[in-house]
Structures are given as C-alpha cells and as structure tokens.
Design brief:
Layout lengths: L2 E6 L1 H5 L6 H10 L7 E5 L3 H13 L3 E5 L10 H9 L3 E3 L1 H11 L8 H4 L3 E3 L3 E3 L8 E6 L2 E6 L3 H20 L5 E8 L4 H11 L8 E7 L2 E9 L4 H14 L4 E4 L4 H12 L3 E5 L5 H7 L8 E6 L3 H8 L3 H7 L4 H13 L5 E7 L14 E7 L5 E6 L4 H20 L21
Parallel strand pairs: 1-2, 1-3, 3-8, 13-14, 13-15
Antiparallel strand pairs: 4-5, 6-7, 7-8, 9-11, 9-12, 10-11, 15-16, 16-17
C-alpha cells in the first residue's frame, strides 16, 4: 500500500504547534505492516492544499489529510478536496446531526461558523469523530482513498483507532487477523528489558513481534502476531513476559501510573495523603487527575519552605537544622505530620534538590528523599536523579507513586529504578 500523509496548518509551518499526529499514525500503520511513503506539510493556502491533494492522491493508494476541519476561514480542507475532486460542497445531513448532538448536551449554540464544519464535498461520507465537533470525511478518488481528519491530537487518535485503520484495512483488502497485546511497565529501561528478554527467552518465537516504545514515564511493550492461528502464541508469550516482569508491569492498554496507584489504593481500601516539597504538588495532581480519586485521596500539603514544613506539618526545626531539609529525618517527619493532620491511612512525602542551583558536595543537585507508608511502618529512601529540573520533578513524583503501589501490592520497594537492571526482576521462571 502506497500511503501518503498531508498535514495542513500555518501553525505547523511556523513551529507554533509540534507535529505529533504523523508520528502517531506512522506507529499505528506499523501495526498493519505498513509505512507511509511520503509526508507533506503545507500552510493554510487553498491553491497549495488543492494541488497537494491532487498530486498525492494520484500517486497513492491512501491519502490521510490531517487538519483544517475547524469553523474558521483558515480551515480549508473541505473546500480544497472539493476543488481537487470537482465535487461541489453541500451541507451534509450526517455531519449536521453530529454537530447538533455534540453541541446540545454542552449547552453550545451552533453558529454560522460552526455550520461550515458540515459543508462537505458531495462525493464524501463522514468519518465519525467521537470526541470533537467536526466530523472527518472520506472518499475514493481515482482509486485513492482520501481520509480527512481533525488536527486536534486527542480527536485524531480516537479516530485512527476506531475508524481510520479499519478503513485502510478494508481498502487494502487485508483479511489477516492481527493480534496486538500492549503492556505498560515502569521503573525499567528499554535496554534492560531487551537484555533480560535475550537472556531468559532465547527461544522467543519469530511469530511474535516484540516492540518497545518509551512513553515517559513508562515503557509500552507490544506483542504482535499476524494470523489467527498464532493468537494462542501471543497469549502464551504475553503470560511468560508478564510473569518475568511482574514487578514492573503496571497494567495494559494505556494504563497510567496514576491509575495503577489508585487501583492499588482502592483494592486495599486505603486513603493517602501527600506532603510535597520539590515536586510542588505533582503527586497529588496526578492522583486526582483520575476518576474516582475521592475514594482513595484525602488531601495534600505543599510545604516548599522550611518555615512551612515547620508550621504546617510540625517538622521540628532542630531536625531541619541538624540534617537539612533534604534528609531522611525530614521526610519521615513530613509523612508523620501529614498523617496526624488528616484521616488518611497512608502518606507519601518528598523533599529534594531540583536544581539547577542549591546543591552541595554532600547533597548534589538531583538528590531526593522520599518517605511512604502507614503511621507505624514508615519507610524512607534516597535517590539521585541528575537530570533537568522538570524531568527531575516528573521522575521523582513517578517513583514516589510507584513505591506506594509496590508497598500496597507487597512487591519489593528495594529496586534500582532505571539502573540498566543491576537488580533483576524478582519473579523469574
């Protein structure tokens, strides 16, 4: 299959918007054994967009046009496709019905500008957009399937998964069953994963393609088999892989670390409180970003200064003076204070040096202490994360959440995070 991508928008040309959609569709097409042969990016120029559709569709089996479906005058994809195919624009009833169904529950009034999103070339059928107001649309022109999609990434991804890939498979006449299993892991590196797989599974079958993709702060592992006769192999090797890396697997199919933590809290029927310094509330924000967090989250304390640590959480000034704010003694006191001032069952506290300044020879930038657990069983660990400030904060918050997850699931919390596996997974068979 000759597949072409055409992305449109002045914001892409100027660099104001980073193109992530073409990377996503390329990864998704890879699951079908396909790769785009050409990608073109053009600005909001009607003539250039029309010519590009004509050029790419004449040399391709599938053309995916991304962007330009909005309600404003610079959204030109429908008009350009109309000109390229010689198909008049007309108000599409299915697109109108979608627009009305999207607007009504949100209390939005459909304006004349919005109605532009329902004016499509007569030759086209709609492609459902389960998230946004603008439908996608498609047609077959000179044996090329042209699929027009919105530029908003979350809308685009939903449409790729639900509609675009099945349309391409159908157009290509692909009847082969493809089984893809996705697992999400935290606390281990790509190279570490590959090294252990090579060591422990020298008989890994060629029928099961193993792929890794870093999606910070986790790694997605994908097991792909082609042909229904190999489904059982996919299941078998997924189980073997999951058992080998059981300590690191947080879930499947897009599971977030925050979801995994909240699930572990809910399963244990426990609520947590956070006490944060260097991460500034990132842990609490992650927990409450998930639906149902009210069942597992009691509250948060952001105590950045030493004075706030003392006045809010009753951390003794003598401890701070003797050991410093970034120390085992202080994070344990922060966790204890948070538990005493809340109704939570567990606490997690964190204090570190995010940089780029503030380090000392004894405590260089990147040093962070964490404490976690219940009132009578608090634990603490020191980590060294020498990385830029935002990466430090994100990684430290993620490790802190994973420590609690592991504690709740009775997994080892004495692991070397991201250390090229100096310590091997516990459950190896």
């Amino acid at each position: 299959m000759r597949i072409a991508l055409l992305l449109t928008g002045d914001e892409l040309m100027s660099g104001d918007t980073v193109d992530s959609n073409s990377a996503y569709i390329a990864q998704s097409l890879k699951d079908l054994g396909m790769t785009p042969r050409i990608k073109k990016v053009v600005g909001d120029d009607l003539e250039l967009l029309t010519d590009s559709i004509t050029e790419l569709s004449s040399a391709s089996d599938v053309l995916i046009v991304n962007g330009g479906l909005g309600p404003t005058v610079d959204d030109l994809t429908a008009l350009a496709l109309s000109k390229a195919t010689g198909s008049n624009l007309t108000r599409n009833e299915a697109a109108m019905a979608h627009l009305s169904a999207w607007a009504e529950p949100r209390g939005f009034v459909v304006t004349e500008s919005n109605l532009k999103q329902a004016d499509l070339p007569e030759i086209c059928e709609i492609v459902d957009n389960p998230v946004g107001s603008a439908v996608g649309f498609r047609c077959v022109w000179q044996n090329c399937m042209i699929i027009c999609t919105p530029g908003v990434p979350n809308e685009f991804k939903k449409m790729v998964e639900g509609q675009v890939l099945p349309l391409i498979k159908s157009h290509a006449g692909i009847k082969e069953t493809i089984k893809i299993t996705r697992l999400r892991l935290f606390g281990i590196t790509e190279s570490g994963l590959q090294d252990i797989v090579n060591e422990k599974f020298p008989d890994w079958p060629k029928e099961i393609e193993l792929g890794f993709r870093v999606q910070m702060p986790v790694i997605e592992v994908k097991l792909t088999s082609r042909g229904g006769q190999f489904d059982y192999l996919n299941d078998h090797w997924t189980e073997k892989f999951s058992n080998l890396f059981s300590d690191y697997v947080i879930g499947a199919n897009g599971t977030r670390l925050t979801q995994a933590l909240n699930k572990a809290l809910a399963k244990s029927n426990k609520k947590i409180v956070t006490a944060e310094s260097c991460t500034g509330g990132s842990i609490a924000s992650g927990i409450v970003s998930e639906a149902g967090s009210s069942h597992v989250f009691d509250g948060a304390f952001v105590v950045y200064s030493n004075a706030m640590k003392q006045s809010v959480l009753d951390v003794p000034s003598s401890i701070i003076d003797e050991y410093g704010a970034v120390s085992e003694q202080v994070v344990l006191a922060m966790a204890k204070g948070a538990l005493e001032k809340s109704d939570a069952d567990m606490a997690i506290s964190i204090s570190g040096i995010a940089g780029p300044e503030g380090g000392t020879p004894e405590k260089p930038v990147g040093t962070v202490w964490m404490a976690w657990g219940e009132k009578d069983s608090l634990k603490a660990r020191r980590f060294f994360l020498p990385m830029p400030r935002l990466a430090f904060q994100r990684t430290a918050a993620s490790i802190a959440m994973d420590l609690v997850r592991r504690e709740l699931l009775k997994l080892s919390t004495d692991i070397d995070y991201f250390s090229e596996l100096k310590r091997k997974p516990k459950h190896i068979s």
